[in-house]
Amino acid sequence: MSNQLFEGLEEGDLARLVSNVYSIDEFKSKMGDDADIIVLGFVVDDKNPAMDLMNFVERGYDFVLDADVSAGEAQNGEYMVFVEMERNEDAPEHIHQLISDITNLTDIDMADWEFKYRKSNTKYDCTEENIARIVPLTARQYRAKFGADDELNAMRESARVPMKSLGEPDKFKEQIQIAAGIR
């Protein structure tokens, strides 16, 4: 019978292995509806450090619902660590606390952390204020900002199921469609 030795991470153990830019809501939640759950994504240079970061996060915070490592390499040997937490008014504080603690493992200065929101390439400084300003903190805010489920709408569109528009009609798009003979 073999026993595995589990050691705790110490300050600087993940130095130069974790990217200082993380994502918020870029990836789908595996635990539930995206309107209810925030997903953070961290890029880590190798599988073992990614596993270390995942274990650190999953075991250290009661506000973390789940943490996981990508099944395979993203690119150049990099792995993703996904962290899921409840979408609520405390999320900016929780995210900031998590990043602050990861700072000790990575030797990245708190001022150097940045995040991207969803699929945007725009980077924001990691402050509670920026997180609260950019990230919807309730399911209602999320649905108001992004409408119904994006995947469901994509399926409806590909199946040519008529959809009721939630916004103002786009006059330019209408004119292009008429000119192209598709409307």
Structure description:
The chain is of the alpha+beta class and 183 residues long. The chain has a domain at 21-146: Gyrase A, domain 2 (2-Layer Sandwich), CATH 3.30.1360. 35% of the residues lie in helices and 18% in strands. The chain is built from 6 helices and 6 strands. The protein has helices at 47-60, 91-106, 128-134, 139-146, 150-158, 171-180; strands at 21-24, 37-44, 64-69, 79-86, 114-117, 123-125. It has a 6-stranded mixed beta sheet, covered by helices on one side. Strand 5 and strand 6 form a beta hairpin. Helix 2 packs across helix 3 (128-134). The longest helix has 16 residues, at 91-106.
Distance between the termini: 70 Å
CA radius of gyration is 20 Å
Number of helices: 6
CATH class of the domain at 21-146: Alpha Beta
Helix content: 25-40%
Strand order of the largest sheet: 3-4-2-1-5-6
The SSE string, one letter per element, is EEHEEHEEHHHH
Round the mean pLDDT to the nearest integer and report it.
Answer: 85
Number of strands: 6
Largest sheet: 6 strands, mixed
Structural class estimated from helices and strands = alpha+beta
